[in-house]
Amino acid sequence: MRIDLHCHSTASDGTDTPAELVRHAAAAGLDVVALTDHDTTRGHAEATAALPEGLTLVTGAELSCRVDGISMHMLAYLFDPEEPALLAERELVRDDRVPRARGMVAKLNELGVPVTWEQVERIAAGGSVGRPHVATALVELGVVPTVSDAFTEEWLADGGRAFVKKHETDPFEAIRLVKAAGGVSVFAHPAATKRGRTVPESTIAEMAAAGLDGIEVDHMDHDADSRTRLRGLAKELGLLVTGSSDYHGSRKSVSLGECTTDPEVYGEIIRRATGAFPVPGTGGA
Questions:
Q1: Which alpha helices (H) appear in the chain, and where do they start and end?
Q2: CA 128, CA 108: separation in Å to the nearest integer?
Q3: What digits encode the pLDDT tens for the residues 215-226?
Q4: C-beta separation of 265 from 235 below 8 A
Q5: What is the mean predicted confidence (pLDDT) over 62-85?
Q6: CB 37 within 8 A of CB 14
Q7: Does 1 score more than 70 pLDDT?
Q8: Which of 44, 76, 161, 283 is deepest in the core (most CB within 10 A)?
Q9: Angle made by CA atoms 127, 160, 175, in degrees to the nearest 5
Q10: pTM of the full predicted structure?
Q11: What is the model's pLDDT at position 195?
């Protein structure tokens, strides 16, 4: 089985619609794909309706978190999307995204960059607006050559000249909320140093003690040494090890299925989840 447990659609900052994503996943030879848009489950219904025969959909979300001043992401799988407490927290994070993006536009204008809110809105196309949409606007304007080049201290990285904070969930609270909603929590790309400061291993150990289920080890932002270190940490802490592409369509160069999750780990995630179940494809629209 080929299993990719971290993908994005136009419901957040991907460029494939949810329907396109599942069709592309099937074409890429995947057996299982997870839709994990940022702080939203809005794309799940469309993905389910379009799910090709032979492909299974894992519903999820990537939750925006912050601990000790460090931004991090928590993948949440197979939770009940209507559970009130987790739903309220996701809405709180999402509601803060628009004023934050507007603030980044204002800062860029002060720096002489002629980006407009209308341009960012067009790029987001109704999705959960975030820094990648602002970064894409900078690419369109020729300010930077790629989206990744916008995530520097000169522009949009944490603490950068145009950076604006947003509401982010405490990861210990996120773990509690996901578990209460019947879901499974996995710390996304924990060693992605090019994104900024990373969470120390001591904090990961504390999260494991608080109920964290796993860490994403095989990821494009982790080199071989980081993967080896994280596997050792996961074994020491009794955490599941996942792998995934973090696919964003044409916004990033990574391909679907570039990193995958072991079928036994996938089976354990299903066993632990009580909020929702994987959706088998029946030849959707």
A1: 18-27, 44-49, 84-95, 97-110, 117-124, 131-140, 171-180, 201-209, 224-237, 263-272
A2: 20
A3: 999 999 999 999
A4: no
A5: 96
A6: yes
A7: yes
A8: 76
A9: 55
A10: 0.88
A11: 79
